[in-house]
Specification:
The complex is a heterotrimer. By secondary structure, chain A is α/β, with parallel strands linked by helices. Helices cover 31% and strands 15% of the residues of chain A. Chain A has 15 helices and 21 strands. An eight-stranded mixed beta sheet of chain A has the order 8-7-9-1-14-17-6-18, with helices on both faces. Chain A has a three-stranded antiparallel beta sheet with strand order 19-20-21, with no helix packed on it. In chain A, helix 1 packs antiparallel against helix 2. In chain B, a hairpin with a 5-residue loop joins strand 1 and strand 2. In chain B, the strands form two sheets. A two-stranded antiparallel ribbon of chain B has the order 1-2. In chain B, strands 3-4 form a two-stranded antiparallel sheet. By secondary structure, chain B is mostly helical. Chain C has one domain. Chain C has a two-stranded antiparallel ribbon with strand order 1-2. The longest helix of chain C has 22 residues. The chains are: A alpha/beta, B mainly alpha, C mainly alpha. Chains A and C meet through helix 2, strand 8, helix 7, helix 8 and helix 9 of A and helix 1, helix 4, helix 6, helix 7 and helix 8 of C.
């Protein structure tokens, strides 16, 4: 194992245990840069991107307005007065309904409980995006529309804090632009997102040996790897002919220290969410479930059939075990039903549909109901994840939550118009919206910006003071910058604006 | 594909945007289509500065020269931007932009935006990407000594290597390596023509394999991004929990059009459906059989209104859904079959006095109109085809059902629209114009190129790539038969030279 | 962070071990031959898991449905590692195309698959020597007592491994390298032990099956 750490920094990394070995392998040449990397690794911030596929609208949640407040309420998305609660600077909608538009499934949705409990950590920031295309807008919600050389927020966090982590940036959600790799190709390989598409079996891909019946001794297995990496491949005509290939360079790069570092962490055990069972015969293959598995399964009891609960469970484990500094999870495009439920005669019961098809985007069919159901889902996941993070100490009395930010990234808002006094109506994509951020690092308890009740469009705020500025619309780069700075990321040289108002006030 | 399509889109965007601006000047009160921040004249201006650059063979550079996803700039674009009329208020007018761009470009010529060791000007002239360190000028020609050595090596990297190709076509088309005996037998062939014939024979066998033609096979998976299946709402065989439509119909039609002696333009022209009778066998479904289908898998659009892949029940279900003016549907069709991604500002063909915003979505705002002046007229022909609401059927009066939700003007949206600068009366004509366009042929070829070569056509591939897509269009060459094109694709150096 | 420090003691030792633990006696490998001409435009493609397993299944004479199963139940490609091994899954996971860049876990997954396959093949060879594909008998003389395997057996086995996995004969150099590796596998154990021979065949199979030439084309 090679290292170009200065002697002083070598000793400092030695005190960091496993994190130190990762830093040693990833450290830049410059001694000062090494020191910065070590310091940041000791004081990480965690970014949880709870992506909200399909357009999570603030107007149907924390910026909702009562009909009595809106002059043209009959044709704008203002809610009946008694449906809108005011909790601090936020609004909340609680709703029950017999169907979700054309889906005959009753539901009960609640936002107020979350707002009451997490008010002090909640921040809603208004903004206006630049694309109504799902995939493009999803990407822009995490790269700020190429605000900082095209790197995503997750990559920026991994770059800043992730050098001491086995897999700093993990993507748990599939098929969305929220996990699309950024366009800054100058970053070190370890900061780009690593996919974890299937939570139950993915931990098996974290060790090349364990759980394989009849294999020779591990020590011998490692000699075979060494023989392959150091002799067989380098001397092969295939390698010597095609060594210039980027694919081969990348492969040989991740096959070395990075791989050994991952295996040394015993992540195949630590991240094994599922217990030993007939379906997952771990014990018979020399494997065990995670020591915190039961705690996590109790928090997310539907992990076996609800992909989002499985993602959330694994997200917590990744943070808790010091594997990652940023995780991205969220609902996908598929409908999710309670276990054993299908669409049959007689319709669906209360709560049978956990996630409508295309998630928030089913608002095209029934805006209010879908927004209610999906916000309820997102907040329920968030609440449990926050509770778990609060329950685990990071260091010296600080919990993991104290260092975390949960960003409800979404593509865009929804259109505000509705047919006269309609309760059920479809909405389209609208560039104008806002985002929910929940974090002790954010300017908690605040709505930054406001709503123009004449057209129900949001407007922006002064980036320094947070004072509402009607007529101003905050941009994607500004949102990106505010989140990055609240996370303590140094963006010197990027020309990103200082969004002081988005950080926790002293 | 991005590169070539951006060239074409730049040509069309430039031409029509100039026309649009002129028209606006002539017709007072007409809405300003192009906001000053978008710069369609840029590709042409770039090539005025560098007429000899490889990227300027057609007269227009690509947007990706300076941008990631426009308007966001890449590293080179940022360098240029810093030198472009410093101190002047933004956004610049088109006139000022064109006036100051040459000096800005000159000022950054000796810089190296992507730090790959090649200056910006060297990369511009060589046709490689100034903002991508992985794109560097390459010399592909071998020195004489190397050619001699390579000819006797396991891989002949200085020429087309038939043995390498033989193995590769098995991997790519059959999904497995050739048997050792077959490989050894091939190596014993000395005559070059005989080798090529053997390769062709192998392809022919593999093109009928389940790996290539079967469900979840190669051709099937090419269609994934175009069809966008979602199991949760699948009907028919092996249905999901909320069955809305069966995308197997779409995959089967796609496979049919891309195989055997079938015309690939049927992707946009077919008025029939196809069923799978075996792992690799497909046949057209008779109208009688189609009419007998249960409700969950019916294809309600009448035969004479069908437009291949873009009027199927599934396509309407997942794209149109409940929308009056199905912009997502049109954009998906444009992207999937012509390779133009409007979300990335590709394929823009601004139509004067558009968008009319019939459904009052606010798309007329300047920042929206940049794209919607193309997208909306592209979408009108789709407005007679129902999605989920309306039962996937064809209905000339469909838009009347949306007046309550989208306002009275929505019913005025025409059935005719515009695609690639041509007026079309309905979706059938839309399909015809699209299917016969260069963009269609380029996209079909591009999909297979990317799959089989492993990357987009780069600057060194242009001649071979162009020959293939032009051949696809030619009645005397491949005549829109994909399998014929593939036989020649594997004979390119891009494929067969290690 | 406290937990990281505690658990990291082993890692710290490992880090130090890179420079202080005595290395085993160095292997003596065959000299490299002059390098071939390098490709100016290498466009290698990753052999996705399905094709990889299809090849191994055909050439190692192992049924595809049994060749590799995680936890003895889940097919390595279709169930366990589909995406990181270059597969797609559009209807449920919405993964329409193979991942552009190999994931960190991709080489680990390949190692697992290769080890599964090779361990299974050698186990089958030991159970039914008459049908052996890789591990064949007769390497230790007529009476089986030779202290180390004979050259002919090493050559034949190397040829079987390369032939099955890479569909070609190994070069002289490659055979010599594998033979040299035998001594490392045998270290501290009787050179003519059946277990040593089995381990060497398994691990040589693994090394070749997870090599760049096996994984890319």
């Amino acid at each position: 194992m090679t290292s170009h750490l200065s002697r002083r920094n070598f000793l400092r990394t030695a005190s960091l245990g496993a994190a130190g070995s990762f830093i040693a392998a990833r450290a830049p040449q410059d001694a000062f840069a090494q020191e910065v990397m070590i310091e940041r690794a000791k004081n990480p911030r965690f970014l949880i991107v709870l992506s909200s596929f399909g357009g999570a609208s603030q107007v149907d949640a924390f910026l909702s307005r009562r009909e009595s407040e809106v002059p043209n309420a009959a044709t704008l998305n203002a809610y009946p007065n008694d449906m809108v609660q005011t909790i601090g600077e936020f609004r909340a909608i609680d709703m029950k309904g017999p169907s979700i538009g054309a889906i005959p499934a009753a539901f009960t949705a609640n936002q107020s409980n979350f707002v009451r409990k997490h008010n002090n950590d909640m921040m809603v920031v208004t903004h206006t995006g630049t694309s109504v295309n799902h995939f493009v807008a999803q990407q822009r919600s995490i790269n700020g529309n190429a605000a900082w050389h095209g790197r995503t927020l997750q990559e920026a966090v991994a770059l800043t804090y992730g050098a001491g982590y086995a897999i700093p940036n993990v993507h748990l959600v599939n098929g969305t632009g929220f996990t699309e790799r950024g366009t800054d190709n100058t970053l070190p390989a370890y900061v780009y997102g690593e996919r974890a598409p299937t939570p139950n079996l993915w931990p098996l891909s974290l060790d090349g040996y364990r759980g394989i019946a009849g294999a020779p001794d591990r020590r011998l297995f490692e000699t075979a790897r060494k023989f392959r990496n150091e002799r067989l491949d380098p001397s092969s005509d295939f390698f010597r002919t095609f060594r210039g290939s980027q694919r081969i360079k990348h492969w040989t790069g991740i096959r070395g220290d990075a791989l050994r570092g991952v295996e040394a962490e015993d992540l195949i055990t630590k991240l094994m969410l599922f217990p030993d069972s007939e379906e997952m015969p771990l014990a018979a293959h020399g494997l065990t479930g995670s020591a915190i598995g039961q705690k996590v399964r109790e928090a997310f009891p539907n992990y076996e059939f609800d992909p989002l609960e499985a993602q959330a469970a694994l997200a917590f484990m990744l943070l808790r075990y010091g594997v990652s500094v940023t995780v991205t999870l969220g609902p996908e495009g598929s409908a999710v039903f309670k276990k054993g439920v299908t669409l049959g005669e007689g319709g669906l019961g209360e709560g049978d549909i956990v996630n409508p098809p295309i998630s928030f985007d089913f608002s095209h069919q029934a805006n209010r109901q879908v927004q209610a159901v999906m916000w309820n889902r997102q907040l329920s996941i968030a609440e449990r994840l926050i509770s778990l993070l609060k329950s685990e100490e990071f260091r010296e009395g600080q919990s993991f939550w104290d260092r975390s930010m949960m960003y409800f990234a979404t593509e865009f808002g929804r259109t505000r118009r509705r047919p006269d006094n309609a309760m059920t109506f479809g909405s389209g994509h609208d560039l104008n919206n806002g985002s929910l951020i929940v974090s002790p690092l954010a300017n908690g308890g605040r709505v930054l910006g406001g709503i123009n009740v004449d057209n129900m469009l949001t407007y922006g705020f002064d980036p320094t003071t947070g004072k509402p500025e009607p007529g101003r619309h905050m941009t994607e780069p500004e949102m990106y910058s505010g989140i990055a700075h609240a996370l303590g990321i140094d963006t010197a040289g990027s020309n990103l604006p200082d969004m002081r108002a988005m950080r926790r006030q002293a | 594909m991005k590169r070539l399509h951006n060239v074409r889109s730049a040509i069309l965007a430039l031409g029509l945007s100039v026309a649009a601006l002129s028209f606006a000047a002539i017709a007072p009160g007409a809405p300003l289509i192009q906001p000053a921040s978008a710069k369609p004249p840029a590709p042409m201006a770039f090539c005025h500065a560098y007429p000899e650059a490889k990227a300027c063979n057609t007269g227009f550079a690509e947007c990706a020269a300076c941008h990631t996803t426009p308007p966001a700039r890449n590293a080179f674009g940022m360098q240029v931007s810093e030198k472009l009329a410093p101190g002047m208020a933004r956004p610049l007018s088109d006139e000022d932009f064109l006036k100051y761009l040459p000096a800005a470009l000159k000022a950054v010529e000796d810089l190296d935006a992507d730090s790959d060791g090649f200056s910006n000007i060297v990369e511009i002239m060589a046709g490689t990407q100034t903002a991508d360190a992985n794109s560097v000028p390459k010399t592909l020609a071998c020195a004489t000594d190397d050619s001699t050595r390579a000819a006797s090596a396991q891989w002949n990297v200085c020429a087309y290597d038939a043995a390498y190709t033989f193995k590769k076509v098995h991997m790519d088309f059959c999904g497995r390596s050739p048997l050792r005996a077959d490989m050894d037998g091939f190596r014993r062939i000395t005559d070059e023509k005989a080798k090529l014939a053997r390769i062709s024979e192998a392809i022919d066998q593999c093109l009928d394999s389940p790996y290539w033609l079967g469900p979840n096979g190669v051709v099937w998976n090419i269609a994934n991004a175009k069809i966008r299946p979602a199991y949760a709402v699948k009907s028919g065989e092996n249905p999901g929990p909320v069955p809305l439509g069966d995308y197997d119909d779409d995959y089967n039609l796609f496979t049919w059009a891309n195989s055997d002696d079938h015309d690939v333009r049927d992707l946009l022209l077919a008025q029939y459906f196809v069923k799978r009778t075996g792992p690799v066998t497909l046949e057209q479904i008779s109208e009688e059989e189609l009419a007998k289908r249960p409700r969950g898998t019916m294809q309600p659009v009448p035969k004479d209104k069908r437009v291949g892949m873009i009027s199927t029940r599934w396509f309407g279900a997942v794209n149109t859904m409940f929308t009056s003016i199905p912009r997502t549907t049109a954009a998906q069709a444009y992207r999937s079959y012509l390779g133009f991604d409007i979300a990335r500002m590709q394929g823009l063909n601004t139509v004067p006095h558009e968008p009319k915003d019939y459904d009052i979505k606010g798309v007329g705002a300047p920042e929206c109109a940049v794209c919607h002046a193309t997208l909306d007229p592209l979408s009108y022909p789709f407005t007679r085809y129902n999605g989920i609401s309306g039962g996937y059927s064809y209905n000339d009066d469909r838009l009347k059902d949306y007046v309550r939700v989208d306002g009275p003007r929505v019913a005025e949206a025409p059935a005719g629209g515009m695609i690639l600068g041509q007026n079309v009366a309905d979706l059938l004509e839309w399909g015809k114009v699209a299917a016969n366009s260069d963009a269609f042929a380029m996209k079909v070829t591009y999909d297979y190129w990317k799959l089989l070569i492993g990357r987009e056509p780069d600057v060194n591939d242009q001649a071979e790539y162009t020959r293939l897509w032009r051949g696809l269009k030619s009645a005397t060459t491949y005549n829109y038969r994909v399998e014929k094109m593939l036989h020649d694709l594997v004979r390119t150096n891009a494929y067969g030279r290690p | 962070m406290t937990k990281l420090i505690v658990s990291g003691l082993a890692a710290l030792i490992a880090l130090a071990a890179c420079t202080t633990t005595p290395e085993p006696a160095p292997l003596e490998f065959a000299a490299d031959t002059p390098p071939p001409v390098a490709s100016a435009d290498p466009r290698v493609q990753f052999k996705d898991g399905e094709r990889y397993l299809s090849d191994l299944s055909a050439n190692l004479n192992m049924p595809r449905e049994d060749i590799c199963k995680e936890l003895s139940r889940y097919d390595c490609m279709t169930d366990a590692f589909r995406i990181v091994l270059g597969g797609v899954e559009a209807p449920n996971l919405l993964v329409n195309e193979p991942i552009e860049n190999a994931a960190l876990t991709s080489p680990i997954a390949v190692d697992r698959v290769a080890l599964h396959v090779c361990s299974n093949r050698v186990r089958m060879d030991r159970e039914k020597p008459a049908e052996a594909v890789l591990l064949k008998t007769g390497g230790f003389g007529a009476d089986g007592r030779a202290k180390s395997p004979d050259t002919k057996w090493l050559n034949t086995t190397a040829d079987a491994i390369y032939g099955s996995i890479l569909m070609r004969s190994p070069s002289e150099r490659e055979i010599q390298n594998l033979a040299a590796y035998y001594s490392q596998v045998a270290e501290g154990r009787p050179g003519n032990s059946a277990d040593v021979a089995a381990d060497w065949v398994t691990l040589s199979c693994f090394a070749v099956a997870s090599s760049l030439e096996a994984v890319f084309y």
